[in-house]
Amino acid sequence: MDESTGTETPAEGVEYDSYEDAPSEYTTESPEASEASFLAQPVATGPAAGTGRRKQAIARVRIVPGTGKWTINGRTLEQYFPNKVQQQTVNEPFVLLGLEGQFDVIVRVNGGGTTGQAGALRLGISRALQFANIEHRPALKKAGFLTRDARVPERKKAGLKKARKAPQYSKR
Fold first, then answer.
1. CA-to-CA separations, 76 to 93, 105, 169, in angstroms, rounded
2. How crowded is the C-beta side of 9, counted as CA atoms within 13 Å?
3. Where, if anywhere, are coiled coils annotated (predicted)?
4. N or C: which end of the chain has fewer CB within 10 A?
5. What CA–CA distance (Å, rounded) separates 107 from 72?
6. In what order do the strands lie in the sheet with 57-65?
């Protein structure tokens, strides 16, 4: 180290035009690290899976490239969700990305009611699509399909009939 300027001198036998050209032993940038981060992105071209939850419902979803066939607990989409609004809800990720009819969907869903199951299924499909192609993530994220709705029923308290409903008050 040069005492007068407080800078390091280059190693013997090596000459640099300036100190900016000299490699620093403290740098975190290396060509290998930048290439490794690019290669570390998951890209799945085959089947993909995702889990979705909403209220008390849990949906385990597998998507496989195919013709758009739905199997929910062994039934079709129309049989399992006769309500058109719920059918639209579970189809939203495919419609957003323009992938209708390109994936077969296999689902095991349990717990909760039909609305909670439809919401859980939408989240599971969105997560599976994101895993299938990471480029789908920004659109799904912006639409709010990757956000888990954390609202769950409040627990029952001791001495109450439900979470907040108390027995009728009697003065005498």
1. 18, 10, 50
2. 8
3. none
4. C
5. 5
6. 48-54, 57-65, 103-110, 70-72
Q: What are phi and psi of 15, to 5 degrees?
A: -120, 135
Residue ranges of domains in the chain, CATH in brackets = 48-143 (3.30.230.10)
60 beta partners: 51, 108
Torsion sign (Cα): 130, 131, 135, 141: positive
Beta bridge partners of 133: 43
Element (H, E) at 28: none
- Confidence (pTM): 0.69
